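Q&A log
Question type: sequence-to-structure
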Amino acid sequence: MTEYRDFAPRQRFRSNVALSPDGTRVAYAANTDGQQNLYVAPVAGGPARKITDYTDHAVRQVAWSPDGRALLYTADFQGNEQFQLHLVDAEGGTPRRLTDAAAQHVLGSSIFTFDCPSPFTPDGRAVVYAGNDRDAGVQDVLIQDLETGAVRRVESVPGTLLQAGPVSPDGRWLLTTGMHSNSDSDVGLVDLHEPDAPLWVVTGHEGKQLHVGGPWAADSSGFLLLHDRGGEFRSLGSYSLATGAITDLVTPAWDVEQVATSGAVRAWTVNEDGLSRLFVLRDGELVTLPELPAGVIESLCVAGEVLAFRLATATRPTEVAVLDLAANELRYLTSSAPSVEVAFVEPELIRYPTHDGREVPAWLYRPRGDGPRGVVLSIHGGPEAQERPQYNYAGLYQYLVSRGIAVLAPNVRGSTGYGKTYQRLILRDFGGDELGDFEHAVKYLHGLDWVDPARIGVWGGSYGGFASLSCLSRLPSLWAAGVSVVGPSNLLTMARSVPETWRPEIAEWVGDPDTEADFLLERSPVTYADAITAPLFVIQGANDPRVVKAESDQIVASLRDRGVDVRYDVYDDEGHGFTNRANEVRAIGDVADFLLTHLTSTADRSE
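Response status: OK
Response body:
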């Protein structure tokens, strides 16, 4: 009989994909040898070159220098998210560390998908990035001269997470994005020709609107951006420096996710009900593309006639892929597929009614054969994120389905991809109305004649872990088992312990820990821990800076104090999730075994 590790991908990718300026090489980070290291692969195909050899550090982001001779990347230690910048020769060698403060340093716009624009000035003499080294609670933008080490700082203020975008081709303007929240941001410009020039916000607005800066026009006359100023979904527009006007270019009834440009080529993706649709313009005309697998495209880059991106489907793990426009051909540069030889299951997109008349979209993975079957309700993190048809959780879904357990993965209120109104329903309502969405997911499952109502479990990580604990403690009669991975159990203590750059936003996001302690405790799973009856498995990274270990400690201690058996695994060398492949395979395998033990019938085990 197969085990979970037979379904685990051979490697996992955590960074963006970076295409060399000449379009011949792709750089990425993968845990092929256990830890997230930097690799460079030829676009034409062939073996990848391993550039770094970390065992405790994980490469997170990567970018090419304008001349293609060097790579700039960020890395942190054992998941602590204290990212530092490094510069290394593209052929390999000893990296040169550019930052050393105990702080976070990040490249590009960390929200959404503008990974590709270079963080270098066009002449390659300086790099632009963001960091909270001046004040742990404030993220500034910095421009570092690579020869002298001198740093120019563009200061931000509490409540605005400032991120560095690309520099205009003429070297004058630095684009920035200032995040006020996940659904409210502005684009700004810094004049690099004026040493003391202040930040010029060019998308000032009232209310909540999202603006994220993208690639520059070749003549530096303006830039592309994503925005939702005109409706529920994100459009692709262009900003003119001369007029200050935004002209809409693409306005679909879904979110435009990402855009990349090179010469006469512009490419973008649209998130249509969780699936990525790729569009390419060349010289203003739409290009007829080869048929691509139905899945998710991330980290889109363009150089010349080559597009590079990460591509995942529900039945194939994430791979680094290139689309050669000249040859009209898709090529995979990596091979991560597991060794197991079984027919994977395609999920069905369903919608179920919930308590306030809304319909909740969800992906249903159904095992082959007749019922009755156990089911896992899988709750994604974020919560402002989206469950999509990918080889999720390193193959966990497909393994469970192969063993006779179904998976229902909903996009409850707060999820992205379904309009900004739906996304914002979660604000200041953690543990509120979305609890009804979970309850109605179970009601939907009860209505399926192949589901065993007595064998429904719940699991998730981060916000999904919080939601799992909420389900177990506040809807205790519905569950046969539950798993929380790095999940907050106490919203009050979580609000007081999140990274300092998050704290100005926490009152609007979750609640004010100084003035609304009772409200936060009323919404916290730990308050209702005495009601938990289902077996519980908790996993935590000791170095997690977002959901600190004390969050898991609290719920475990509360249960053990009353004699409840709860399994608690702590990974001393991990943070908010896994960078070490062996740890991830072990943890997800243990989750799978736990769920199978509690949700599988004797008949299922004999199949």
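Response note: The first strand starts at residue 18 and ends at 19.
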